[in-house]
Write a structure and sequence with these properties.
The complex is a heterotrimer of chains A (about 350), B (about 400) and C (about 130). With about 400 residues, chain B is an alpha/beta fold. Chain B is about 35% helix and about 20% strand. In chain B, the strands form 2 sheets. Chain B has a 10-stranded mixed sheet with strand order 3-2-4-7-1-8-12-11-9-10, with helices on both faces. In chain B, strands 5-6 form a two-stranded antiparallel sheet. Chain B is globular and about 55 Å long. Chain C starts with a helix and ends with a strand.
Chain lengths: ~350, ~400, ~130
């Protein structure tokens, strides 16, 4: 059995609403937000970044179990906003949770599915017996260009999963991925903001990959939507995952618990892992979860997960739940938002 | 150990002295001190210089040799020592110079303090002040020099009920004194409202609670007490000295509202001088921030612990009070060229004891005290000076 | 901040690794090689000790004239925190307003950026604190 032994999340506490953003560009932000199904997005504080978010999530995961960090054999951090282009986030996390020095580590990039790609790698290393525990983290402080639609949704947050074979609280029955070369959304080296293909990001990208991945995974597992208590889909806004769910035959009820974007925006590499964490916060033994992450470029990672009896012993209360981070919110205006994102040009000394 | 006298004093104006370089300032103070001592410079056996940060502020180290050179004594190969103890550099240089004469090693010694702080911008001079705290465990985390005193103030307010008005009163008093000091950085007077309404620096400390960053130099000539009367009718005796250190970081102190180094240094000085705190008439102390004066008068045992604010408000330390504190204007009004402060404090006390302080004269001044601290109290130097007939 | 100097302190800045004197059991932060109480008896007996990161506000201030690298965070809150194990440290309090901070407030350690060596330089990480919920 291989699966999730522990999980931890972190979302910065600052929030900005679509109305606040829209006011700057002269549009009805509230209405636009509603059309996207997004009511607020999280904003990192001026001293936060993907590394600090990854560390907080990883520490939260470690607080819930009695695992010796030195037994973690691999750490992978997936993000599209690593603070360094060269020098991994993963080594700082490793040091900050006391896992150094006997481990391997690396950073991943695959848009919003870089974290889940790390889960798959850890599964392989753990299942093959090469390592005892692996940690996969998906975290981002994603940037939306000012005035661009993405400005309303690109947010910050992260989750860390400890993968192993002992005391597994959620078994990963199978993982399946669907990957193609599809240029729907990208960022060139040196560019501050990503670019995207507008409406091209919908059907040929998100929907093709998410739906195909989900269908193929269910075929391989011999399951139907009814087999699952919960479904978590990648959530660039509040609408896409509901539409995808509907097209596949899932109900809003199944999707609800894992859908966080309406409240905290799209946390990119953190999104699906945060959604799964939200489900695990309430799930009972025997609950089955279908999760499909999507990364532009493009690919979808699907996971068929069954919650085990172990979750009853799991000390979830040792770290804050997803609900706490969602609700622990402080509203800011666009001026403070700009200041926090270091976009006010300060004097050079 | 023989007794030591101060026979000459000299000081430049303190302020933003754009036209004057570090070298010029050092020399000017020294020349004034020699003239005041009425000796020939050839009599000097050694030079001690207090300087905090020439390396960063004017990119020059090795300042003792530099001052000897520019004073014209390089050919005499005068012994010279530069002393650094943050803003207590001047006080500790005085301590070293005293030892040199008291021990019998030298007879005539010049001790000066000099600092040129305005050749760099505010950010750099503030950075240097931050470096006198614990750079790695205080400054790096965002603490500024002012913020450390602000936290001392916060704790003092919490434990003893000290108020922001009482702190402001220190600035009002010291500016009133400074307005009568032709060499002071600031000659303007301040009202309580002006101080209370000045913009916040680190709460509760406001802009007008802070001493300025200044340029300036001061110097003294010391000689054995037994020789003093050959040169002056008004020699001042160094009756007692005390030096003490404490933890570098404020957070490591035993009690944040007490500078233990000040308590110990002053105890040592009082003991050596055979003087009790209540005998002190005048004191020049280290009001880098108004709260510092309040805490220092308690730790010097001039008033009871916790009553520094109340005493200030009641005029205990004002003209006509039991002990006049900072009659020169203090660091607040007279100015704060870090390495020179400790020497300038002695200059003022000597002038007062000689009866030469003119408009600032404290009547009946017989026993004076100076207190020079470094950092947030990691070094404290106290001297007790007496006029003896 | 110079690279080797920063690197040496990573265990203390990230994980609050201090030392415990084996002789008298007192705990110190940051690490030191000699116990101020035991002196010679403590040499070689100062062992690494990981502090919990929990503590109480001992004093605080709100800074308007910032330290280098903190310009973007003005005004920000600085505090002296009494850690549960005994030592006091100086650190920023984040994620709250000054009106919420009191002497005696309970705080917990968080991991944040401390600064950077310019846009092309190393980023420094370390401890800050937030009010406990």
């Amino acid at each position: 059995m291989v699966g999730i032994v522990s999980y931890g999340v972190y979302v910065p506490r600052y929030r900005i609403t679509p109305a606040e953003i829209g006011a700057v560009w002269g549009i009805d932000g509230k209405a636009y937000g509603e059309s996207l199904g997004v009511y607020a997005k999280s904003v990192p504080g001026p001293d936060e970044d993907t590394i600090t978010i990854a560390v907080m999530a990883a520490r939260n995961a470690m607080k819930r179990v009695n695992v010796n960090p030195k037994e973690i054999g691999a750490i992978y951090c997936g993000s599209e906003s690593h603070p360094y282009a060269v020098k991994p986030t993963a080594t700082v996390v490793a040091e900050a949770i006391g896992a150094t020095p006997d481990l391997t580590a690396a950073d991943y990039e695959f848009a919003c599915k870089a974290g889940t790609a790390g889960i798959q790698t850890c599964m392989g290393l753990v299942k093959s017996g090469m390592i005892k525990y692996g940690m996969a983290i998906g975290a981002d402080t994603s940037q939306g260009a000012p005035g661009d639609p993405l400005e309303y949704t690109a947010s910050a947050g992260g989750a860390a999963f400890l993968i192993g074979t002992e005391h597994v609280i959620a078994e990963i029955n199978r993982t399946y991925s669907y990957t193609t070369d599809t240029p729907d959304f990208w960022r060139r080296e040196g560019q501050m903001y990503p670019s995207h293909g507008g409406r091209f990001t919908g059907e040929p990208a998100y929907f093709r990959h998410v739906l195909t991945c989900a269908k193929n995974l269910m075929k391989l597992q011999n399951t139907t939507p009814e087999s699952y208590a919960y479904a978590v889909f990648h959530q660039p806004n509040g609408r896409f995952p509901r539409r995808a769910g509907k097209m596949l035959g899932f109900t809003d009820e199944q999707i609800k618990q894992g859908l966080l974007t309406p409240y905290i925006g799209n946390t990119y590499s953190g999104a699906v892992m945060l959604g799964i964490s939200s489900v695990l916060d309430v799930a009972k033994p025997g609950d089955r979860i279908l999760a499909v992450a999507f990364g532009s470029g493009a690919g979808a990672d699907g996971f068929d997960i069954t919650v085990t009896e172990e979750i009853k012993e799991y000390r979830r209360e040792n770290a804050p739940l997803v609900k706490y981070y969602v609700e622990n919110a402080q509203q800011i205006n666009y001026a403070i938002y700009t200041k926090f994102k270091h976009q006010i040009i300060l004097r050079e000394e | 150990m023989r007794d030591v006298a101060i026979i000459g004093i000299g000081m430049t104006k303190f302020g933003e002295l754009w036209e004057k370089s570090f070298r010029e300032l050092g020399i000017e103070a020294g020349l004034k001190a020699i003239a005041d001592a009425k000796i020939s410079g050839d009599l000097l056996d050694a030079l001690y210089v207090g300087n905090m940060s020439a390396g960063k502020l004017i990119e020059q180290e090795h300042v003792a040799s530099l001052i000897v050179d520019y004073s014209g004594y390089a050919s005499r190969h005068l012994p010279a020592v530069r002393v650094e103890a943050a803003s207590a550099s001047g006080g500790v240089a005085f301590y070293e110079a005293y030892l040199a004469v008291a021990s019998g090693l030298y007879d005539f010694v010049m001790v000066g303090g000099a600092e040129k702080m305005t050749d760099v911008g505010d950010a750099e001079s503030n950075r240097e002040l931050c470096a006198t705290a614990d750079n790695e465990w205080e400054s790096i985390f965002g603490a500024t020099y002012a913020s450390l005193f602000a936290m001392m103030a916060r704790r003092h307010m919490y434990e003893y009920g000290t108020t922001e008005e009482q702190m402001a009163q220190v600035a009002v008093k010291n500016h009133r004194f400074g307005s009568k000091n032709p060499l002071a950085h600031f000659r303007n007077t301040l009202t309580l409202d002006q101080v209370l309404n000045s913009s916040p620096v680190a709460t509760p400390i406001k802009t007008l609670d802070c001493a300025p960053v200044s340029d300036g130099a001061a110097a003294l000539v010391l000689c054995p007490w037994d020789h003093a009367r050959k040169f002056t009718d008004t020699p001042v005796k160094i009756a007692g000295i005390g030096l003490a250190t404490d933890t570098i970081a404020l957070h490591s102190r035993r009690d944040m509202c007490t500078m233990d180094a000040v308590v110990r240094a002053s105890s040592r000085a009082y003991h050596m001088a055979g003087v009790a705190p209540k005998q002190v008439n005048i004191a020049e102390i280290h009001d880098c921030y108004t709260i510092a004066e309040i805490i220092e008068i308690e730790d010097l045992r001039l008033v009871k612990k916790g009553e520094g604010g109340k005493a200030t408000a009641e005029g205990v330390t004002d003209m006509g009070g039991r002990v006049v504190v900072n009659p020169s204007g203090g660091l607040k009004a007279r100015g704060q060229p870090a390495g020179a402060v400790g020497i300038a404090q002695v200059v003022e006390i000597v002038e007062q004891l000689r009866g030469e302080a003119k408009e600032r004269q404290v009547q009946g001044a017989e026993v004076g005290l100076t207190l020079n601290i470094g950092g947030t109290g990691a070094t404290a130097f106290v001297s007790i000076l007496k006029r003896e007939n | 901040m110079q690279i080797p100097r920063f690197w040496r302190q990573i265990p203390s800045r990230y994980n609050l690794i201090g030392v415990q004197c084996e002789n008298c059991k007192r705990i110190y932060f940051p690490p030191r090689t000699v116990c101020p109480e035991c002196h010679r008896l403590s040499v070689g007996k100062m062992l690494p000790y990981k502090l919990s990161g929990m503590g109480v506000v001992h004093a605080f201030t709100q800074i308007y004239e910032p330290a280098d690298g903190f310009e973007n965070q003005v005004p920000y809150i600085m505090a002296i925190i009494q850690l549960d194990e005994g030592p006091r440290i100086t650190a920023q309090i984040v994620d709250c307003g000054i009106e919420d901070v009191k002497i005696g407030s309970r705080v917990e350690m968080v991991f944040r950026r401390l600064g950077e060596d310019g846009k092309a330089g190393i980023i420094y990480y370390g401890y800050k604190f937030r009010l406990c919920k």
